[in-house]
Amino acid sequence: MAQATVKCDKCGTTMYIDSKKARAICPECNHEQPLMSQDMLGNAYKVESFGDPTELLAKAEAYFDLQDYDRAAEFFAKAINVDPNEYKGWWGITRCRMVNNYLGIDNGYVTAFEKVKSLAPQEVIDELQIKYDVYLEALEKRKDKSKKLESCDPINREITIKASKGPAKNYTVDLIVGFVLAFLMVVSIVLMFFTNEKLRVFFIILAIMLALGSAYMFRHISESKKIIKLVTSGEVKTVSGLMEKMKRKDKLEFLKLLGSMIVAKYFVDYKIVDAEYILKAESESDYEEEKIKVDKKEKKPKRKDKKETKSTDN
Fold it and tell me: Using CA atoms, how far apart are residues 252 and 150, in angstroms rounded to an integer?
C-alpha cells in the first residue's frame, strides 16, 4: 500500500490507499473509508463496488454501446479506481473522451491513451493504436470545422448579441401548440378509417406532417430549457462549451438559435460577446434597446365653418 494525502474523517491522520479494495485505511485508528473515482475531467464518482472491476467494465461497455457516453465514462472511472493498472478502464475513458467530443478539443483523451500504452500488453497496444488512429482522424475533421468557424469566417468573430430584459417568457404557448398539433394528428388518424381511399391518403400525409410538427415543438422546448439551465447554473460559460453539451456542430446555426431565444425573451439578462462568451448583463449598455411604440395622434386643425368665416368677413 502507498501513502496518500487522504485524511481520516475521524482522527485526521494521513491515510493509506489500498488500490485493490479501492479504500483508504487509517494507520492510527484503523478506520476505513471508500475512495472517490475521478475521470479525466475531474468529475468525482463514489465507488459502488470493490475488488474485481469486471462488473464495472461490463456496465461501462453497455452504456458505451447505448451511446450514453457520460454514464460509460463514469463506470470506466470507477473501474480504474478499483484497479488502476487495468488498461481496459483507461481505454474506455479514451474512447468516451474522443467520441463524446463535438469540438475536437483535447479533453483528456491523450493522457488516458498514454496510460493505456504504459499498461497494456504490446500485442494489444498495436491493435488499440489502429483504433485510436481511426478515432483521431474523425476528431481532426471536427477540429478543422471548428477552426474554420472561428478563424476563416470573419463575421463569426464579430457577432455580439445584446441581452434582453426580463421577465422571462415561459413556454406555455409553445406547449399548447405542441398539444394541439398532437391532437390534430390523432384526429387525422381516426378520420383515415372513415373516408374513401383518396381522402385516406390525404389524412395519412396530414397526420405525418402534424406528428413531425408536434415532435419539433416538444424537442425545441426541451432543448431550450436545457440551454437556459446550463447557462444560469454557471455550468457553461461559452458557446463552444454549450455546443459540446448540446451535441451541436454548426456554430452559426447555434448562434442563431441563441439569438432568437434572447430576442423572444425566453433567455434574459445574458449577452453573447465575440460569438463565444456568454456573460451576465451588468449595465444598461448590455441590453438591447427596446423599441417602444408611441401612438401619436396628430391633431388636425379645426376647420372653421363657412358661416363663421363669412361673418368675420362682414
Answer: 10
pTM: 0.44
Instruction: Considering the chain, tell me which residue range(s) the CATH 1.25.40.10 domain(s) occupy.
Output: 35-150
CA distance 169 to 158: 28
Look up residue 48 and give its DSSP letter.
-
Contact 276, 156 (CB under 8 A): no
Q: What is the CATH code for 35-150? A: 1.25.40.10
Residue 245 makes CB contacts below 8 A (sequence gap 6+) with: 226, 230, 235, 236
Angle (CA) 217-222-228 rounded to 5° is 125
- Helices and strands in the chain, H and E counts: 11, 8
Q: How far is it, in rounded angstroms, from Cα 186 to Cα 178?
A: 13
At 224-239, the pLDDT tens digits run 888 888 888 888 888 8
In sequence order, the 6+-apart residues with CB closer than 8 A to the CB of 39 are 45, 73, 74, 76, 77, 93, 108
Measured at the alpha carbon of residue 168, what is the angle toward residues 164 and 169, in degrees to the nearest 5? 115
pLDDT digits (tens, 9 = 90+) for 11-21: 766 665 555 55
CA-CA distance, 203 to 197, in Å (whole number)?
10
